[in-house]
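User: Sequence recovery, please. Input:
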């Protein structure tokens, strides 16, 4: 190879290394803040737009992740604590209570079954 060609090959290799490293670090970052979550239920599917609620509607993380303390990493999923087991609050109960309470309180957002269970 000529000197110039070697130089070009070298630059290409460095660029590819940087792209590779950036891609790898993006895969490593977990858990990500969800964009949208889809829940399949026997009353029909519910689409929860996590990103819209958190950014557009300007609701603080802790208003929903009630056990969460800032600076503790990422909040836990609700299902970690709210699953059906004896008297435990199931996740569906936790959702129906929290989602609906806020929608009623703010007089906006769906409160009728079919407005959430749309699919
Ligand atoms: C309007 C309510 C609401 C707001 C506001 C909100 N979240 Fe969530 N978040 C949820 C719900 C509901 C889930 C799904 C939990 C489940 O399926 O058990 C969730 C899931 C998550 C998860 C995934 C957890 C896992 O391990 O699966 C992360 C991470 C998260 N939220 C971070 C945040 C952060 C950070 C903020 C603030 C910038 C925030 N959330 C604001 C309701 C909310
Ligand atoms: C680390 C455990 C934990 C996580 C994670 C958690 N909760 Fe809770 N939550 C509790 C406990 C403990 C209570 C009180 C006892 C009970 O009612 O089960 C509670 C109570 C509630 C209540 C009833 C509040 C009241 O005033 O009656 C709602 C609604 C609720 N949680 C919703 C959620 C939602 C939605 C999420 C996810 C965004 C979530 N929780 C995540 C532990 C947790
Ligand atoms: C702390 C308040 C709050 C909580 C908690 C909350 N919401 Fe909402 N939600 C809103 C607001 C505000 C709107 C915006 C309504 C509008 O003006 O369009 C909304 C709108 C919606 C909409 C219709 C528009 C859209 O973004 O898709 C759906 C569906 C919805 N919410 C589902 C849920 C579900 C499911 C949960 C529980 C997991 C939940 N919400 C919890 C405040 C809340
Ligand atoms: C604000 C949105 C919202 C409204 C309004 C709503 N739901 Fe739900 N519902 C949900 C979400 C989200 C889940 C998913 C819970 C899960 O997968 O843990 C759910 C779950 C369910 C389930 C499955 C329960 C289980 O234990 O798996 C049934 C049944 C249900 N809803 C019926 C209803 C009925 C009936 C109404 C009206 C009286 C209603 N829902 C109103 C959001 C809503």
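Assistant: Recovered sequence (119 residues):
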């Amino acid at each position: 190879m000529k000197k110039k060609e070697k130089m070009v090959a070298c630059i290409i290799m460095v660029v590819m290394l940087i792209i590779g490293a950036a891609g790898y670090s993006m895969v490593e970052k977990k858990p990500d803040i969800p964009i949208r979550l889809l829940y399949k239920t026997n009353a029909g599917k519910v689409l929860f737009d996590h990103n819209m609620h958190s950014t557009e509607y300007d609701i603080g993380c802790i208003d929903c992740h009630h056990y969460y303390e800032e600076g503790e990493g990422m909040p836990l999923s609700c299902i970690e604590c709210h699953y059906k087991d004896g008297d435990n609050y199931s996740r569906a109960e936790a959702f129906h209570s929290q989602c609906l309470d806020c929608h009623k309180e703010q007089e906006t957002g769906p409160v009728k079954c079919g407005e959430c269970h749309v699919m």
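Residues 30 and 74 are 9 Å apart (CA to CA).
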